[in-house]
Amino acid sequence: MSKKLLIKTRQGYLAFSIVVLLLAAPAFYYLSQWLQLYQTDRVLQLHKDAFSKLDLDTFSDGDLGIWNKYNHDVKILRGGNLRKDTLFTTTIYDSLSGDHELYREMRAPLTINNKPYTYIERNHLAEMQDMVYGVAFIFIVVIGILLIGITLFSNRWAKKLWTPFYDTLKQIQSFDIDKSREPKFSPTGTEEFDYLNNSIGKLIEKNTAIYRNQKEFIENAAHELQTPLTVIQTKLESLFQSAEQSEHQAVLIESINGDLSRLHRLSKNLMLLSSMENEVYAGKQAFPISQYLTKNIEFFTTQAESKDIEIRLEIREDHIVHANPALLEILVNNLFANAIRHTAAGGFIIVELSGIELKFANTGVASLDQSRLYNRFSKSESAGKGNGLGLSIVKKIIEINNWEIGYGFWGEMHHFTIKLK
Predict the structure, then answer these.
(1) How far apart are CA 394 and CA 273, in angstroms?
(2) Left (φ > 0), alpha (ψ -120 to 50) or beta: where does 107 sit?
(3) What are the backbone dihedrals phi and psi of residue 371, each rounded to the nearest 5 degrees, phi first?
(4) pLDDT digits (tens, 9 = 90+) for 299-343
(5) Domain 285-419 has CATH 3.90.1200.10
(6) CATH placement of domain 5-157
(7) 247-277 helix and 390-400 helix, angle to the nearest 10 degrees
(8) Which of 327, 322, 343, 227 lies closest to 280 in space, CA to CA?
């Protein structure tokens, strides 16, 4: 299932942020601990250096006893075999708190009155540890706020950023090449979107021009063909009636006449499509759909019977439509003609009206190619002498009235369903 680009972008930002923060959290913790120990060791070293600068030779054993009695964190002990200053972390029981506390301890050699002593100083790490925990807590809170902020801010910011793109998409979706109005893209202030809009605008302009030229050519060709086709057909009929022909010549003339009739119908259908695209049939009226189902039923029944095809008309519930009468008659007639053309001898056709649903079903062997079903000049093997425009005209009338048409094949029958919304 595809996702919106906005969601994918936000997920990428969040994933990257989470990975970075997860890596940064332990790094921050260990860095804070190192800084804590570094600062503590520095303080201990400064204290020891300051103590060493005192006039230690004036200290007597009694003075040292008093010092050790009243100094909890700094002791001067007799003896010792240390050669250099030593720093380490240790745990000492604190009688005041009743718990073992963490200390950083420094031991250094001293010489007082030519006698060896050991300088011992401890620094309580609890306060520094509490500070690390506090900073870690703040860090976690900041991470949470950052993630929420990224989600909310990126959502609003991205929506605002992508607004020109969605505006372009909306105009493209509503664009209809049959209409004269082309999309107008406003400057977006973003180079990529402006480039996209310019490219799309040029593409639409080029294809619209091609479509208009093609449309004009078809209109002119269809219109210009009418007169010569009529003249040729009239002369051919005169030839057929005025002279005696052999059986072979009569067959040829009849074949030519049939081809001319199909060409004449093709020209008329092309003109009809052109008229619909130019909205010539814009006027609409309200009337029952059953009126046009029964209007020419006898004509189509006669055509069907010549192929041993049965037509069953079932009007379960009538429906009032608002449409152009001429177009509705063409719609119904084309559906009837299409069903008869695609039904083999001995088959049957069912036409059913149930309120807003109009169904045409006819017997068949295999499903039609739905990708080419409504294309102009698209003909199936069973189309016979059709010109491939019948369903194109049906589709166009459906679109003009904002109706819906669907096709399906089941039970060895073709089913066309029109929803007359």
Answers:
(1) 10
(2) beta
(3) -70, -20
(4) 889 989 989 999 999 999 998 988 888 888 888 888 998 899 889
(5) no
(6) 3.30.450
(7) 20
(8) 327
H helices within 190-246, ranges in order? 191-242
Residue 318: which of 354, 347, 285 has the closest Cα? 354
Q: Which residues contact 108 (CB under 8 A, 6 or more apart)?
A: 48, 82, 84, 85, 86, 118, 119
- The two tokens of residue 122 are 């401890």
Please state the domain extents for the chain: 5-157, 192-277, 285-419
Per the CB < 8 A criterion, the answer to whether 29 and 132 are in contact is yes
The distance of Cα 25 from the centroid of its chain, to the nearest Å, equals: 36
Domains 192-277 and 285-419 share a fold: no
pLDDT digits (tens, 9 = 90+) for 218-240: 666 666 666 676 777 777 777 76
What are the pLDDT digits (tens) for 123-136? 877 665 666 677 77
Q: Which CATH architecture has domain 192-277?
A: Orthogonal Bundle (1.10)
Q: Tokens for 233?
A: 């057909």
